From TrEMBL:
It is found in: Membrane. This is Protein kinase domain-containing protein. One of its GO terms (molecular function) is ATP binding. It comes from Glycine max (Soybean). One of its GO terms (cellular component) is membrane. Keywords: ATP-binding, Glycoprotein, Kinase, Membrane, Nucleotide-binding, Receptor, Repeat, Serine/threonine-protein kinase, Signal, Transferase, Transmembrane, Transmembrane helix. SUPFAM superfamilies: Protein kinase-like (PK-like).
Length: 235
C-alpha cells in the first residue's frame, strides 16, 4: 500500500505531467483518457502519463473542440464530453480530479445504475463528507497516522474543484500545480460536483441518449472503470 507522502508526490507528478501536455509541450495535447491504468510508476515511484492513443493535438489558442465519436472511460469522462462530445483542457482536469479523489480514498469512482438499485459514486460520497465538514473521513483506512491533514484536505479540495459541472469553474493545470506547491495560496470553495449516472448493462445508452437530445450522431468507444488506486503499482 502507498503511504500518504507517496500518494501526495504521485498527485503532484501527474499534475505536472498534464500541465506539460497542456502548456509546455511544443504541441498542445489533450489526452482524453486519463485514468490510473494510463499512469505508470517507475522504480522511484515517479508517475509517467502513458497511452496517447485517444489524445488530440489542438491549436495553442483553441479552448474547445467537438467530436462526433465519443471515446474514453466512464468514471473519468467529463459531463460535457460524455454528453456533448465537447473536450478541452478542462476535460483532462476533470479526469485528474477523479484520480486525485481515488488516490486519497483508495476507492474507484462508479456511479452506475442497475434496475432497482443506484450505487453512490465516489464524487457524491466525497462531496457529502466535504459538505458535512468531515473530509478526512474519506481517507484510505490503510494510511496510518503519519500524514499531513492540511495536505489531505487541500488535495480533496483540489479534487472537488476539478470535477465541477461547469468547465469554467474548474482550475487550470498551472493553477493546480501552484496549489500543490504552496501552502500560502487560498483555494476557491468547491460547489456540488458534476454527478451523472450510466448503465452497467448498456454503456452505450448514455451516449446515445445524449446524442438524441443534442442532435449529435455519436459513435462510442467506451470502457467501464474497474481500476482501484490501491493497486497502483510501479512497472
Amino acid at each position: 500500500m502507498l503511504n500518504w507522502l507517496e500518494r501526495y508526490n504521485i498527485i503532484g507528478g501527474i499534475a505536472r505531467g498534464i500541465h506539460y501536455l497542456h502548456e509546455l509541450s511544443r504541441l498542445k495535447i489533450i489526452h482524453r483518457d486519463l485514468k490510473p491504468s494510463n499512469v505508470l510508476l517507475d522504480e522511484n515511484m515517479i508517475p509517467k502519463i502513458s497511452d496517447f492513443g485517444l489524445a488530440r493535438i489542438v491549436e495553442i489558442n483553441q479552448d474547445q473542440e467537438s467530436t462526433n465519436r465519443i471515446v474514453g472511460t466512464y468514471g473519468y469522462m467529463s459531463p460535457e464530453y460524455a454528453m456533448l462530445g465537447q473536450f478541452s483542457e478542462k476535460s483532462d482536469v476533470f479526469s485528474f480530479g477523479v484520480m486525485v479523489l481515488e488516490i486519497i480514498s483508495g476507492k474507484k469512482n462508479s456511479g452506475l445504475y442497475e434496475p432497482h438499485r443506484v450505487a453512490e459514486g465516489l464524487l457524491s460520497c466525497v462531496w457529502r463528507q466535504w459538505r458535512d465538514q468531515k473530509p478526512l473521513s474519506i481517507l484510505d483506512a490503510s494510511i496510518n497516522e503519519n500524514y499531513s491533514e492540511i495536505e489531505v484536505i487541500k488535495c480533496i479540495q483540489i479534487g472537488l474543484l476539478c470535477v465541477q459541472q461547469n468547465p469554467d469553474d474548474r482550475p487550470t493545470m498551472v493553477a493546480i500545480v501552484s496549489y500543490l506547491s504552496s501552502h500560502l495560496i487560498e483555494l476557491p470553495s468547491p460547489q456540488e460536483p458534476a454527478l451523472f449516472l450510466h448503465s452497467r448493462k448498456d454503456p452505450k445508452a448514455f451516449a446515445q441518449e445524449s446524442s438524441s437530445s443534442h442532435n449529435i450522431n455519436a459513435s462510442t468507444s467506451l470502457s467501464i472503470n474497474e481500476m482501484s488506486i490501491s493497486q497502483f503499482l510501479p512497472r
